[in-house]
Amino acid sequence: MLPGDSPPTTRRIIHIDMDAFYASVEQRDDPDLRGRAVAVGRGEGRGVVAAASYEARRFGVRSAMPSRTALRHCPDLVFVPPRFDVYRAVSRQIHAVFARYTALIQPLSLDEASLDVSGTYRDYGSATQVARLIRAAIFEETGLTASAGISYNRFLAKLASDHRKPNGQFVITPQMGPGFAAALRVEQFHGIGPATRARMNALGIFTGADLRDAPIDVLKRHFGKAAAFYAAIARGIDDRPVVADTVRKSLGTETTFERDLSDWNEARNVLEDLCAKLWRLRTARAISGRTLVLKIKYADFRSVTRTRSESRAIATEEMMRDQALVLLRMFFPLDRPIRLMGVTLTGLEGNSGENLAQMTLFDDSTC
Amino acid sequence: MKFQADRTTLIRALAHIQSVAEKRNTIPILANVMLSIEGNLLRLTATDMEIAVVEEVAAEGSRDGAVTAPASVLYEIVRKLPDGSVVELDHGGGDAPLALRAGRYATSLNVLPVEDFPSMVAGELPHGFSIPAPVLRGLVDRTRFAISTEETRYYLNGIYVHVAKDGDLPMLRAVATDGHRLARVETDLPAGASDIPGVIIPRKTVAELRKLLDEGAGAVEVGLSDTRIQFRVGAVMLTSKLIDGTFPEYERVIPKNNDRFLRVNKQAFADAVARVAAISQERSRPVKLAVQPNLLTLSAISPDQGMAKEELDETSVSYDGPSLEIGFQARYLNDITDQIDVEAEFVFADSAAPTLVRDTNAPSALYVLMPMRV
After folding, report:
1. What pTM was computed for the model?
2. pLDDT tens, residue by residue, B104-146
3. Which residues of B touch A358 (CB under 8 A)?
4. Is A108 in the same domain as A66?
5. Is residue A362 part of a domain?
6. ipTM of the complex
7. Where does Mg(2+) bind (chain A) (predicted)?
8. Structurally, how many domains does chain A consist of?
């Protein structure tokens, strides 16, 4: 800021969230699916719903719901396998739309992003108008609808985007913000998960208003450093900036078994498959990393991770597999069966995260 | 075995040979060079089982025979001898050490049995042609920078050499790509090359070959089968296995309809890229090119260091298309401009599509560069 400039004014943040994204893409591309209850995911075994169309949601089908449960709610549910290549391509189209209005874009997933339009909204009249233009352009160019939330920080913008879903938008003004925050249940705040919620509930804190009125020293005693963030967010204050191009920190894959495993050979086979898949993922993204993390979730849902770092990036698929097997051996003999196994590559280095921006000449399939 | 050779002859041959010898020492004898003398002909051989280099030089033999000794040690010793020295190598046979004498210097080196030294057989090489060393050098230099180092894509770890039609005319073509950029260079088809199979020459072979091409301006004799390639450059014979893989259908990724032509002075451009990219700490060092009529603005942003910008105007740039912004890795730009003589021509489609680059003086070379999202 230069001398003579006015003090920093209220930010203008837009949160864009595609409506039932994966399911909508499937319905767009296959007319037979339109108007039907559609779930993206695997219908058999232990599959879960990755996304549900609005028709399916009416029956109570939700994403992350086990497929069996979903079918109980909605026996006519149609499962379609996910096509992530297509979702990624659409995601790129959407990002191209965002980029016309601001450079400050923080993607949160393929179908969600926060945009800071503080510097550019005046050209279009208002941030509300920018959101309208973006949603219209998305519909025009992809045939898909998006909802938007407009507010003065990221947390409230995201909250607002849920308010008129699907295909709508909503503004939370600085006057409305504190009231909105006060009315929320604590678990609706960013960063408050089941464990923190339980501890807050034990202190008699159930809503944003309770949290706002709680003495800061009490919060500090119970939540340490996070106390200041909670106190602020309960007042509708969230200073987190929109950070463009978050660099990837890890890359992983995991699988839940059809039935729980306890045999070494079976576990080894699964792990080798996971390593092969992880190797393909890292190759496709030109990422290299030197740390491998093996995660095991037991039948009782307790999960344990084991980590191993090399001094240099893991250079071959064999190295990755050998390292993973060393980690797996640490879990044997098992004292109870395993439900899920996952491998993650971290300690990404040099040409890793940043190279995601480098586009490639050939599709992964041919080269 | 016993002979004398002058230091200059010996050091030149060892320089060609010693980098082929295996340094990782998984099989000890691969770290050795085989010396064999027959009359006045000294033959030096090194191999890593993928590549073998044999060089024949003149020496003054006094007892025929052969021995193997550590290549890098021998090279270091001979290198440190004074200019003009005459080196005598004397091996009594069996396990006896190899004695090396030059003036008042003397050393003895441990040897390994010649019978254990692996021979790399070229087998039958049904194809053969001759190509001038400077032409071969041009093919190698303008493609090798794009060779992939990603071991999982082994079929990209070399230069793909094959016959391709350019219009009606068959040409000898060299192509390399790492999936981000591609270099394609062609030359008139040498006599005898019209039926050669498409082959992928491994990166290490390319590097060894390139060293040999430094000196000669003569012809290089190339022999070829589906699995082996052999180059004879002067007194040196380089034999190599080929990469057993399928090179991708690269023609698909060479854009045909790009229509925004930017011409820029190579030196001004390369210098500006280097200056602007200096601010970036990332390895990929993205540089953004903003192209407007007769104005090219290069810029780079570093979240920690700030930003840098440089403008090139009509004194070094010509462009009359619509405005365009596009990002590339600085290193990729410099790798290409290093191959360009005076003026580079960029042909763009848009900021997310492959860009074509040419040397306006050398239409036989063509480069494709994939942008970065910036």
Report:
1. 0.56
2. 999 999 999 999 998 888 889 999 999 999 999 999 999 999 9
3. 180, 284, 329, 370, 372
4. no
5. yes
6. 0.79
7. 17, 111
8. 4
